[in-house]
Amino acid sequence: MNFDIHEEIKLVEKEIVNWRHELHKIPEIGYELQKTVSYITKQLDEMVIPYTTMCDGSGIVALINPGCEKVLALRADIDALPITEKTGFEYASTHPGKMHACGHDFHTASLLGTAKILKKHESELKGTVKLIFQCNEEGAGGTCGAKRMIEEGVLENPKVDSILGMHVASIDKLPGGSVFYKVGPAMASNDKFYIKLIGQGAHGSTPHEAIDPISMACHVVQDLHTLRAMEIDTLSPAVITVGTLRAGDGAFNVIPGYAEIIGTVRTFDNTLRPYIKERIENIVKAAAAAHNGHYEFQYDFVCSALCPTNTETQNLVAAAQKCLGPQSVICFPAPIMGSEDFAEYLQEIPGTFFYLNAPAKIDGICYPAHSSKFALGEEFFSSLRIKHDKLKLRCNRRNCSRCGCPVPHGRPPYISR
Ligand SMILES: [Zn+2]
Ligand SMILES: [Zn+2]
Asked: From the CA atom positions of the chain, what is the Rg in Å?
């Protein structure tokens, strides 16, 4: 390509910020993305980029320079979260109880900006670019959007050779505009379990007439922690977290009829996931049987561990270093327990994923993703324009043996889902 990317970005920068504001005002969740999809397709129409929709109209696939032998996919997730926004921004959510609190508005606007530049230089491209605007990254209602789009053929026709994805972060301890990467595993798998322990309700004064689901639930929670501690290799990190434990309606003198437990399992080893599922069900079954009760059990494999492939990651690093300077391209010091459904594409084809740090503060605090005050520095939309000689990255472990990256080690960036 014979164009100056820095100059091209200058031309679309204001438009990208405006797209992001407009999208931020209309957050939608899961697969219910009518306003978001019509906003994106309107921009694609104006750019004269052909597209189709999938997942009942909640996902979009567009093509630039179709017909080439090689196909690269660029993916942006477009969904928001069930959170009430408290940023006070003039472009804050107009949809009560919904917010772009994970930066997917940023991703969508960035991909639209990329599309505009690539379309302008379409004849100079040496391959086809497939743009994927993906629904339901946050996994509302079980099946994640990446899995469903793959099932509906997003990686076919034309067949995709490799894929690239990005996520933003707001981390004040690290330089804005810097890029973080890691060859897999980089992020954990994300599974969800639902347990219902069914007993027999009774008056609180007559426990002998009850089958107590609270006792069953207490045993289950204890045994889940024991499972994590005693059955899983300590060198293969895994998390089993109970996020919800619910029984009764607040009465002090009633034994309820059932108790519910909801939680998540995270690991970097995709082969561990079926084992953990089986063991959790065994624990639930035993607790219910021990108390003469019954149970219901549901386990959703939401998304796999994120494993960027080596060649594609090295290509990304080389390109990012060329554009941003080596000091702004940083290897994750360790994988993180957050998850990302982009992992599903990497189960199918080679590709890579990176984080872009775009910190912004509210009340002096950089709130993390999924916070009602999550904010992003819009000056980092076009990180290529940042004066990188001003970035101050200092290594306190020169030539680090762990990964060779030029930044201090310690707790990795806070990223969650
Ligand atoms: Zn996200
Ligand atoms: Zn998220």
From this structure: 24
Helix (H, G, I), strand (E, B) or coil at 256: coil
Which amino acid is it at 251? Answer: A
Domain boundaries defined on the chain: 5-187+306-390, 190-303
CA distance 279 to 181: 34
C-alpha 138 to ligand 1 mean position (Å): 7
pLDDT beyond 60 at 415: no
Question: Which CATH number fits the domain 190-303, given the four candidates 1.25.40.340, 3.40.50.720, 3.30.70.360, 3.20.10.10?
Answer: 3.30.70.360
At residue 382, the pLDDT reads 62
Distance (angstroms) between ligand 2 centre and the Cα of 80 equals 8
Please indicate whether residue 79 is annotated as part of the active site: yes
Catalytic residue among 28, 77, 137, 312: 137
Q: What superfamily would CATH give domain 5-187+306-390?
A: Zn peptidases (3.40.630.10)
pLDDT tens-place string over residues 111-159: 999 999 999 999 999 999 999 999 999 988 778 999 999 999 999 999 9
Convert the pLDDT of each residue in 312-322 to its tens digit.
999 999 999 98
Whether 278 is catalytic: no
Amino acid code (one letter) for 118? L
